[in-house]
Automatic annotation (TrEMBL):
Assigned keywords, A-Z: Plasmid
Protein's UniProt keywords contain Iron-sulfur: no
Keyword Oxidoreductase belongs to the record: no
Species assigned in the record: Bradyrhizobium barranii subsp. apii
InterPro entries: LodA-like, LodA_C, LodA_N
Segments forming domain L-lysine epsilon oxidase C-terminal: 355-510
All residue ranges annotated as the L-Lysine epsilon oxidase N-terminal domain in the record: 17-229
Protein name: LodA/GoxA family CTQ-dependent oxidase
Length: 633
């Protein structure tokens, strides 16, 4: 391996990016792909996310190292070509030895939810519940397959569990792959709840990413990173209205300790337009969003004509800007109404809807502030319809690459209902979790994981040097559901409620990761090939139930069917629409399913049947306050 003879001028330290990398499980034996490295990636070809057998490929997280000057400015990417780089990663899964999920513990409604007791509380050997194979190290270019790079020596109650492995690319960049989507019960019992199934494990994980970098005999200090191995992304190019990047940006902006440079002036292109694009993008994963924000709908805010008006600072458009901004939910105005945007459940979601500020999702305070600036005309009108975003990280200027990697990784993660969530959950909004913006604190000793008692209580959120400070391996994902499939299969839309919901498909939980209603491949074929415009329009407007493959039997049958085969669920891909046809959009979201027949007929355009509605209205996912809601101050 060739290395540089001396340290490049100006470089005094280094940093790993993305600061938080996201890998995802998949049930393919070896198929994988890199996770997003830019915020606007090109769509992949149809079928890209599956291997030849129809199984889901794993998403890997790729990490790079940048040399920085004394002011933190990136001067160069450091690779195995010009440096000696030794990577170390420690993955662990500590869900079963941690506390139950009942409700986010940093909101007042937590006092009304059941206590969060230890999972598997009758198991005295707590170490047997933690899947912790310890750290692994890797160095050099194009390394793959060595047994010393595999996280396979951890176990759950004596059962070995594979959590993933390390590889490197041609430049010696780190590549982290997670598990293969296997979840199982030690006792052979069925899953019976959405989040807290005792005796169960899954193979998601998380942990620190560190590196030793030496150039010309000089060893550089290196800012560490973290990797989170999450469930699959079943709608890979969709983003929620409030992303994890938005949340972490708000956390940094609100913290005197973390606060970076003052937020720049509100930009329509960077800060406002993405909100409208995300609302429109959800048309491919939820029928309610399709009806209102989708192609040619009442609030299709991303047409060129509409964007030109919304980008204008002219006083003639002020009323339009104010009207659109006022549609977004405000905690002090209409918090528990399902009508304001976005139409998504919140951290304190419950049936019936509680009259609390966390019943439904709001944007971050920073997002709402930028909306207010925009409505007032105090923004940069910088929308350019001819702009072509970078499609690969190499197209981004070097100085901007680290921030782009951080943002791209986190923009495809959710920060909607932390109930508990898809990739990460409510601790991510605690400033104590971070050593710097977007960069998690590491525990001084990864083996030091103290006990906090039989129950986790809200007052532990601020416990000095407690679980929301320096993180141990497995410290981020331990707050999530076990197994994750039970929660994913429970996160639906339009749950029966009292009073009744105003639309059968709304509100919704996490459609950008866990779709609700989708366009089938059969209907896409009609759109593309039929000679009848009426047939094509009808097919385009018809949505199918994403959960169709598991919709047999009762609720418990459904969540256990999902656990049995995560690859049976569809992946929503973006494909070309009819060329030059103004009746249809240029790109269309289409569900790709494995080459096997569905268990039940997929299409359903009505609300759930009465028996199913009765079942769903009573599952513990939506019954968070069995003893009523205490008066909140």
């Amino acid at each position: 391996m060739a290395t540089a003879e001396k340290l490049p001028a100006g470089i005094v330290r280094a940093a790993i990016h993305p600061s938080i990398g996201i890998a995802r499980v998949g049930n393919s034996s070896d198929g994988s792909f890199y996770g997003p490295e830019i915020t606007d990636p090109q769509p992949h070809p149809a079928g890209f996310y599956r291997d030849g057998s129809g199984a889901l490929k794993r998403q890997s997280a790729r990490f790079r190292i940048y040399g920085l000057d004394a002011d933190g400015k990136p001067l160069a990417e450091l690779t195995a070509i010009d440096a000696t780089i030794a990577w170390t990663v420690h993955l662990a899964n500590k869900k079963a030895s941690w506390y139950e999920f009942q409700l986010a513990q940093d909101i007042p409604e937590a006092l009304s939810a059941p206590a969060q007791m230890l999972r598997n509380i009758t198991v005295s050997d707590r170490a047997s519940l933690s899947i912790d194979p310890g750290p692994r190290s890797i160095s050099g270019p194009n390394v793959k397959g060595g047994p010393q790079h595999i996280f396979d020596t951890g176990s759950f109650m004596g059962t070995p569990v594979y959590l993933g492995e390390l590889r490197t690319d041609e430049a010696g960049r780190l590549v982290v792959l997670g598990g293969r989507g296997k979840s199982a019960s030690h006792t052979g019992t069925r899953a019976i709840t959405f989040a807290n199934n005792d005796g169960w494990y899954d193979d998601v994980s998380d942990g620190p990413v560190t590196a030793e970098v030496t150039i010309g005999g000089t060893t550089l200090p290196v800012d560490p990173a973290w990797v989170v191995v999450a469930p699959p992304n079943y709608a890979p190019l969709q983003k929620s209205v409030r992303t994890m990047w938005d949340l972490m940006r708000d956390v940094a902006n609100s913290s005197p300790r973390l606060k970076p440079k003052a937020p720049p002036r509100t930009s329509f292109e960077r800060d406002i337009r993405p909100l409208f694009e995300r609302l429109a993008g959800l048309q491919w994963v939820n029928e309610g969003f399709a009806a209102y924000f989708g192609w040619r709908s009442p609030d299709y805010l991303v047409s060129p004509e509409c964007l030109a008006r919304l980008n204008s600072r002219d006083d003639s458009e002020k009323q339009t800007r104010e009207m659109v901004a006022s549609q977004f939910r405000r905690a002090d105005r209409d918090a528990w109404s399902p009508v304001p945007w976005p139409w998504m459940y919140g951290d304190a979601m419950n049936i019936p809807t509680p009259k609390t500020s966390n019943a439904f999702t709001t944007l971050t305070p920073l997002q709402l502030t930028m909306l207010d600036h925009w409505a007032d005309g105090d923004f940069d009108a910088d929308y350019d319809p001819a702009r072509k975003p970078p499609r690969i990280i190499e197209d981004v200027p070097l100085a901007e690459q680290p921030a782009m990697l951080d943002r791209a990784s986190l923009e495809f993660c959710l920060a909607d209902a932390f109930h508990p969530g898809c990739e990460m959950t409510w601790p991510m909004r605690q400033t104590s979790m971070y050593m710097a913006p977007f960069r998690l604190r590491h525990a001084a000793d990864m083996n030091d994981d103290p006990s906090y008692g039989a129950a986790f209580t809200p007052d532990m959120v601020t416990l000095p040097d407690g679980p929301l400070y320096g993180q141990v391996a497995g410290g981020v994902t331990r707050w999530m559901a076990v197994p994750w499939q039970a929660d994913t299969a429970s996160c639906r839309s339009g749950y029966p409620s009292d009073p009744p919901v105003y639309a059968p498909h709304l509100p919704t939980f996490w459609p950008a990761r866990v779709p609700n209603q989708v366009l089938s491949n059969a209907n896409y074929d009609i759109v593309m090939k039929s000679k009848s415009l009426d047939d094509r329009l009808k097919a385009f407007a018809t949505r199918s139930d994403w959960l169709a493959p598991i919709m047999h039997g009762g609720y418990l049958d459904q969540i256990n069917s999902f656990i049995g085969d995560i690859g049976q669920m569809g992946v929503v891909e973006m494909r070309d629409g009819p060329k030059g046809d103004p009746a249809f959009p240029a790109m269309i979201g289409v569900q790709d399913v494995p080459p096997q027949p569905l268990v039940v007929a997929a299409t359903r355009t009505l609300a759930p049947a009465a028996s199913e509605a009765h079942d769903l209205a009573r599952i513990d996912k939506v019954r968070r306050f069995p003893f009523g809601l205490k008066t909140l101050m």
